[in-house]
From TrEMBL:
Methylates ribosomal protein L11. Its EC number is 2.1.1.-. This is Ribosomal protein L11 methyltransferase. Its main location: cytoplasm. Belongs to the methyltransferase superfamily. PrmA family. It catalyses: L-lysyl-[protein] + 3 S-adenosyl-L-methionine = N(6),N(6),N(6)-trimethyl-L-lysyl-[protein] + 3 S-adenosyl-L-homocysteine + 3 H(+). Transmembrane segments: none annotated. Pfam families: PrmA. Coiled coil: none annotated. GO terms for biological process: methylation.
C-alpha cells in the first residue's frame, strides 16, 4: 500500500522536538538525514551528533489525517522559533522495499583475486576467490573505504598457512577473507555478541571448517598471537589500544590498521612506532590504512 511521508528541514537542536511531535501524531518511523552531505566522524562516547542541516522524515499510513498533523507540526515550529518551517507532505509510492534493498548490493572485486558477493547475486568469476556475504547484524560488507582498504591489502600479501586475527571483527569479513586466501586459522575478537554470531554465520555460509575459526569476546588468553593482525575500528580506540593490539602480533608479523581519517594517521602511527616499522600508509576517500611489521 502507499504511505504518507512528511519531511522537515531543521537544526540539530530542534530535531528531537520534531521527532517527538511526529511520533505523537502517529508516525510509524522517524529518520534523520543530512541535507548537505556533511559527514559526522567519530562522535564522543554516549553522544549522537546530528548535522547542521538535518532532514527529518516521518512515515505514516496513507490514511493519516494530514489536516490534523500539519497544524500540530506548525504549532511546534512556532514554539521553537521556526516561523517559516520547511515542511513537505507527499505520498510515497508502494514498492517492493526488500527487492529495492537487495538490488543496491552487488559483487565487488578487491585486488586481483578476491570478490565479495551477496548470496542472491551470481558469482562474477567462478575461478576467483569469492566471499559470500550478506548485509546483516554487524558492520562490514566491503562497501566502506576502510573495509575495502583492508581487503585489498589481504589480497596483496601471502596469507598461505598464516594465522590471522581480525580485531573488532564485526561481520568477520576480514578474517574470513584471510582464510579463503590461504590462512590456516583465524581468531575474531569483538566486544559485541552480535558480531560473534555474524562472524560464525558468515563462516558457515562460506563453508569454513569450524576448526579453523574461533570468535572471542574479551577477555582472551594473554599469549594469543598471530602472523597477521587486522584492526578496522576507529582512530581513537586504535591509539588507546596500541599496547593490546601490538601484543597480538608475532615478532616479524604484519599489522594493518584502518578506520582512520587522513588527518588522524600521524597520531595512530606514533602510538605504534614503539613496536612496528611502518611500511605504508594508503589513502582512499579521506580514510587511510596503515601497515607495519613488528620489530620487537
Amino acid at each position: 500500500m502507499p504511505w504518507l511521508q512528511i519531511r522537515i528541514h531543521t537544526t540539530p537542536d530542534h530535531a528531537p522536538a520534531f521527532e517527538d511531535t511526529l511520533l505523537e501524531c502517529g508516525a510509524l518511523v522517524v529518520t534523520f538525514e543530512d541535507v548537505h552531505d556533511d559527514p559526522v566522524y567519530e562522535p564522543e562516547l554516549n553522544t549522537t551528533p546530528l548535522w547542521k542541516n538535518t532532514k527529518i522524515t516521518g512515515l505514516f499510513e496513507a490514511d493519516a489525517d494530514v489536516e490534523h498533523i500539519r497544524p500540530v507540526v506548525e504549532h511546534k515550529a512556532v514554539g521553537l522559533g521556526e516561523i517559516d518551517i520547511d515542511m513537505k507532505i507527499e505520498i510515497l509510492e508502494d514498492k517492493d522495499w526488500e527487492r529495492e534493498w537487495m538490488d543496491s548490493y552487488h559483487p565487488i572485486q578487491f585486488g586481483k583475486r578476491l570478490w565479495v558477493c551477496p548470496s542472491w547475486r551470481e558469482v562474477p568469476d567462478p575461478d576467483a576467490i569469492t566471499l559470500m556475504l550478506d548485509p546483516g547484524l554487524a558492520f562490514g560488507t566491503g562497501t566502506h573505504p576502510t573495509t575495502a582498504l583492508c581487503l585489498q591489502w589481504l589480497d596483496s600479501i601471502d596469507c598461505q598457512d598464516k594465522t590471522i586475527i581480525d580485531y573488532g571483527c564485526g561481520s568477520g569479513i576480514l578474517g574470513i577473507a584471510g582464510l579463503l586466501l590461504g590462512a590456516n586459522n583465524m581468531v575474531g575478537i569483538d566486544i559485541d555478541p552480535q558480531a560473534v554470531q555474524a562472524t560464525q554465520a558468515n563462516a558457515e555460509r562460506n563453508k569454513i571448517d569450524p576448526s579453523r575459526l574461533e570468535v572471542k569476546l574479551p577477555p582472551y588468553e594473554s599469549d594469543l598471537q598471530a602472523d597477521v593482525v587486522v584492526a578496522n575500528i576507529l582512530a581513537g580506540p586504535l591509539a588507546q589500544l596500541a599496547p593490546t593490539i601490538s601484543a597480538l602480533v608475532k615478532k616479524g608479523g604484519q599489522l594493518a590498521l584502518s578506520g582512520i581519517l587522513a588527518n588522524q594517521a600521524q597520531e595512530v602511527i606514533e602510538a605504534y612506532e614503539e613496536w612496528f616499522t611502518i611500511d605504508s600508509v594508503v589513502e582512499k576517500e579521506e580514510w587511510v590504512r596503515i601497515v607495519g611489521t613488528k620489530n620487537i
